[in-house]
Specification:
heterodimer, A: 484 residues, mainly beta, Neuraminidase, 2 domains, 13-stranded antiparallel β-sheet, 45 strands, B: 87 residues, three-stranded antiparallel β-sheet, globular
Chain lengths: 484, 87
Amino acid sequence: MKSFGNIAKDGQVRAVASGALTNGKAVIVNSNGTVSTVSLTARDQSVTSETRFNTTNTSYISSAFDSTSGKIVIAYRNADNSGYGTAVVGTASSGGITFGTPVFFESASIEYTGVAYDSSNDKVVIVYTDVGNSNRGTAIVGTVSGTSISFGSAVEFETQVARDCQAIFDNVNNKIVVAYRNSSENNRNYGIIGTVSGTSISFGSRVQYSEQNNYVLRMAYIGNSKFVVSAQTGDDTGHAYVGTVSGTSVSFGSVANVNGSNHAQNPGVAYDSTADKVVIGFRNSDDTTGGAVVGTVSGTSISFGSATNFGAVGSTGDNSNVCCVYDSVNDKTIVAFPDDSSSNKGTIKAGTVSGTSITFGDAIVFEQGGTKYISGVFDSSAERVVFTYEDDDNFDRGKGVVYQSSGNDSTLTSENFIGFSDGAFATTQSASINTANTIDRNQSGLTAGQTYFVQNDGTIGTTAADPSVTAGTAISATELIVKG
Amino acid sequence: MKTIVETSTKLSKYLLADDVAITATASDITVGDPAQFIIADLNSTTVTVTDGVTNAPDDWTGNKYKFDGTTWSANPDWVDPEADDGE
């Protein structure tokens, strides 16, 4: 039997149903010519094979996603080239990540990198410790072009020894927020606000927010000019602070303990924008367990629920033992860490926040070697998380992988929508489909004059999904002129 | 060997094999053909490239030595970055 043909009404087609068709539901044509309703299918988590961006001696890795170009910018110390500051542009896809030619932004030794993307100026800002210049805190503005990046001149933001440099972007004030540890002043922490202009950056006055000996800073922007900084003290107590940007200045609330009276070493932080919660992952140095807590910000303070154990975290030296990234497409907080129970293999677990707690799914290994300096970003173009890290068991190579959370895949593509089922049909039946320029009279709750889009689950709505597929224009609560 | 020296400071920034191509422009320097890496903070107006270098120090690392085109000398401001990690 032909899949298509035997026109029932003007503008309709008849086609063989593959699976049951529900009256009024969006229909796609399959590759064999049969038709089905748009549906979601469950997808398991997955991670690609690793790709190398630096052959040896990679450390102090950090990254940011450039949402304009759809690229990931990675900054790192290249110890094989005298410890020089290096950046490379990555392109992520479902198949993995590819890298452009490495670019040296500082022909001197550097450490402690942080990267942020300024979406208002379409610039990347790298902050770092300029070891070659008395360990001063330094920033440089980069411009991504294709798979390369060019830089303006370096600017000092701290003339004393600045370590643990981190940066985020405040999209309300259009400012770069930098936090760092001042080793010249007993490792007190400071915040400072940067303003990008062209290919340069200028800074306001620094603001101290912690007493001495706060290490391993990590930052997450939480919206409305606010951000959270996590850190650990010299005795491994986890600390968190809420910061607020105002113009070219910044203020901080009081310190909160991340894990009560227990230890919280090498914390990573992410913001779950759906739940409006902060997730901090860490290593409990008392028993090497990995813990995660959910933080609730109220004004300038933050409070935490009880810790959830997500595994065993190895101690592979300073920095980035636990990396947290929020996947806004699949509404999951992704935690990457060296698994202490399995030779510090690079391991990922996806967490789901509910209230003030978080639960984790199964582990997936992304690196068979020991991992250090894990950095992660959510690539909203690829709808995946990109992790970059040092392979501690393989010449300290710099590598990257692309991770996709479990979720649901839609059968809808940008091309396969053909109309709406005009009636209910069983599989293999010849089904009538209202196609383009017909009036589908099987809808409900529509608003005349509105354009409707096919959603990934087969319903229709006034907001375009991804992919954007126009369903038609409503002419009454129940009628839609079919497009597509 | 060949070295890329920052002209103003005489600091030897890069030490490369003789067969490695160096393309210096007004904006940056590309090393290798095809490119192995790009140097973004130096350019054709800020560096001097010396070919045929035979007497580079065995423990050469970037910024540790100055080079005047003939003679190497220790950089008096050099601090070993591995000596102090601050923690």
